[in-house]
From TrEMBL:
Keywords: Membrane, Transmembrane, Transmembrane helix
Name of protein: Tricarboxylic transport TctB
Transmembrane segments: 7-25, 45-64, 84-100, 106-123, 130-153
Superkingdom of origin organism: Bacteria
DUF1468 domain sequence ranges: 8-153
UniProt xrefs under InterPro entries: DUF1468
Length: 160
């Protein structure tokens, strides 16, 4: 039996969501907070539950789709080529880069560069799309987080 990439991806997401849910229960509550309706554990628990539901639905849909399809044109794990592995490794390296440069360059520059390089790794070559899909999104997200919600995002040591 061959397992498709969709099922493996959904299984990995399921394992991640279960692990996230387990750790959500480990978040300590402030004294008296255990009786509140909304606590520091509420949203992580909700995200874990949604992740589990989405991954289970993805597994079911993939299995049903695979059983209906008799055509072997879809790639399976055996057909996972070197280019795909290189993309996966590059994106993991890009995530490490993002985490390492967040304090140094700040949220805006690190996130813009992360998105641009991520799009390039995934195959997007249009410069107009690269910048329109990264710069305005990051600026608007930064404005919402810092100006509207009052959440601190690192400006970076480069500017200070």
């Amino acid at each position: 039996m061959k397992i498709s990439k969709n099922v493996i991806g959904a299984l990995i997401f399921f394992i991640f969501s279960v692990s996230y849910g387990y750790h959500a229960y480990q978040i300590p509550l402030y004294p008296g907070e255990e009786y509140d309706v909304f606590t520091s554990q509420t949203m992580p628990k909700l995200y874990a539950l949604l992740g589990i539901l989405v991954s289970v639905l993805a597994i079911i849909m993939s299995i049903l789709n695979d059983s209906r399809t008799t055509n072997d044109t879809e790639k399976t794990v055996d057909d996972f080529d070197k280019k795909s592995w290189l993309q996966v490794a590059s994106l993991i390296g890009l995530m490490v880069y993002y985490g390492a440069t967040l304090e140094q360059f700040g949220f805006i520059l690190s996130t813009i560069s992360f998105l641009i390089f991520g799009f390039l790794i995934l195959g997007e070559r249009s410069k107009k799309r690269l910048f329109l899909a990264s710069v305005p999104v990051v600026i608007v997200f930064w404005a919402i987080m810092t100006q509207l919600l009052g959440i601190y995002l690192s400006p970076g040591d480069l500017w200070g």
